[in-house]
Amino acid sequence: MGKTISLAKTEVNFTADYIDYMAGWARRYEGEIVQSDRPNEQIFVHKEPIGVIAGILPWNFPFFLITRKAAPALVTGNTIVLKPSDLSPNNVLEFARNIEKAGFPKGVISIVTGSGRTLGHELSAHPR
Fold first, then answer.
1. Which residues form the Aldehyde dehydrogenase domain (predicted)?
2. Which of 86, 88, 84 is nearest to 111 (CA)?
3. CA-CA to 67 of 20 to 30 Å: which in 39, 81, 93, 118?
4. Which long-range contacts (CB under 8 A, 24 or more apart) does 55-58 make?
5. In this structure, are strands 32-35 and 42-45 parallel, antiparallel, or unpaired?
């Protein structure tokens, strides 16, 4: 869609900071113990991944919004399917090429492109 170089650099720097922030959460959460309503009983909460996450991206802030969707999914042990805006898919496609070159495991982040009306609806309405 286009933006000035200074705004693009700001977005990239903010994106890197957000990745660092989310990566830190992988080390922080270890579960929690919640007091029960019953005497002498405690409840241990252990969070588990739910599987595949669908991330539908708008056209604005295309680089940051990739990580805004992907980082929380990955840090919680899930995989993600990203569907970029059909108005600005190239940024996400370039991101996919770069993570592949970097050796990111196949299938952890997947990209699908198409109309929000059809593909976006299918991703958001799918029962799984």
1. 1-128
2. 84
3. 118
4. 55/80, 55/81, 55/82, 55/83, 56/83, 56/116, 56/120, 56/123, 56/124, 57/82, 57/83, 57/84, 57/85, 57/92, 58/85
5. antiparallel
Two tokens, residue 118: 């059809």
3-state DSSP call for residue 9?
Answer: helix
Q: Which domains does the chain have, with CATH numbers?
A: 5-125 (3.40.605.10)
| Residue 54 and residue 112 in contact, taking contact as beta carbons nearer than 8 Å | no
Token readout for 46 is 């252990």
Q: Which token pair is 22? A: 């989310």
Over residues 22-45, the pLDDT tens digits come to: 988 887 767 788 888 999 888 887
